[in-house]
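USER: If only I could read backbone structure tokens as easily as an amino acid sequence. It would mean a lot if you studied the pair and described how this chain folds. Here is the record:
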Amino acid sequence: MRPPPPEGIMLSSTALQGLISSRGSRDRFVVFAFAAAELLLEADLHGRITFAEGAFRARFGRPAQDFLGQPVTSLIAPSDRPAFATALGLLLEQGRLRPAAIKLADDAATAFSVAGLRLGDGEAKLALTFAPLPRELRSGPLPGGPGLASTAEELLRSGEPGGPVGFLELKSPSGRFVPGGEVNREIQVELNKQAGQGAVATELAAGRYGILPGQTPFDLPALTSAIAEILKDRGVNDVSVGAMAVGLEAQGLSQVQATRALRFALSAFARGGNDALEKAGFAGGLAGFLDSASERAAVLRRSIAERRFRMAFQPIVSIADREPHHYEGLIRPLQADDTAMSHPGEFVALAEAVGLTEELDWAVVSAVCEAAGAAGGTRVACNLSGLSLQSPKFREDMKTLLENTPGMAERLVVEITETAEIEQEDEAVRMIELLREHKIPVCLDDFGAGAAAFRYLRAFKVDYVKVDGIYVANALQSERDRGFIAAMVDLARTVGAQVVAERIETEEEAALMLELGVRYGQGYLFGKPKMELAVRKAGQTWQGEK
């Protein structure tokens, strides 16, 4: 027989009676439904706690009233905050959050179930219940690179970045060392153990790991020694473990600049390890990178102006019959000299960090329009950042392009990225309206990566949503992620949008996406990006610039 819960774990009968008497009869069923909860919350539509009751002191060592005014995400373990932001977005739009597994930000990172309802119409609010799980539910693999990046960016936006991000790299005399499956699993377990409570530790690339600190600073030398010991015990010789810490302090930088500098750091490390971080100036932290970026920015500006890049094209297909629906244009920079970026992620991230986003977006839009026009009307998608979307000048330039280029409705799709950075929503809506006037389909990219995209789904009246690939990658192993995808599909259908799932690499993933109601897919299973774009007229191909 299970022992009774410790005192203070469940809502007391006195607390329940007070809740019931303080509410109208319309809301009383909510209290009864949540009576078995350990934590009961109400929050406003911005996710700030307005009411708290339950075992807060037992879980967090602080009374419930201390959490009033705090974001609900403060109760969630950092590694699960990106997923919880998605859950809140679904709750806001659908009015209900089915039970989903998360971990609390308590000392034990306890597995809990969270569920919720949206109450009221005018002064609407969110009612959330947290209850302990009888066992640890499978909720997908350890957080991947996007999870670490999203969590770190949220810290930067909060103005409380905390300690530095740690980077660990395995190197052999011949170059990067890629550990085998069992060794790699041992390393990841050790990283999570040594990094401490609330930390996010993940593999950013083969043999390269990132650690975001949690409630207490981690000991980077100790981590290095522990991993070296694992390699030694496994008989892996002549492999060194290199470490570097990049501070998140960003005095003099805007939040946008800081988050973009961080993206560049993660991309540079994944590709080139600690040497790439050193070369980019990250030994001096995020601010040090931007201080040293002026020379690269000048080269990058010339590269954009002179079109020192090519476009590669990856198909988006109907999953059922594998017929191409349209293609996405992906930038592939050309190496100009030692200071230019040859990797797409670094090229784009540097443009973002040094304020060249609009220039790069316009160069890509122009190249995609030329490609689609030369390919006999094959439809091609170009990526448009949140900053360009809300720029009046960019909108006027786009209007001129569309008015002077007949037939673009059959050639172009616009994918909106970086919705979290859209501050001038009215200006963004004007751009969407311009595109719709010219019958250009609009796709909301990275759907589910945070709560903002759910709001924009209705505000922007889009034609497609592209489910963030992290959910697709985890869906076969994660009941929670499958539920999120199914909910996103239902939500998209309510506004008349079709769903695209990215990063589909296996037949099992494709079959699951179809089962969940996803119509279109993108990924290596259907085709890798190619420099040639298929055309509608027989015998013609279009190639990117040489």
Q: What stands out?
A: The chain is about 40% helix and 20% strand. Residues 466 and 500 are 5 Å apart (CA to CA).
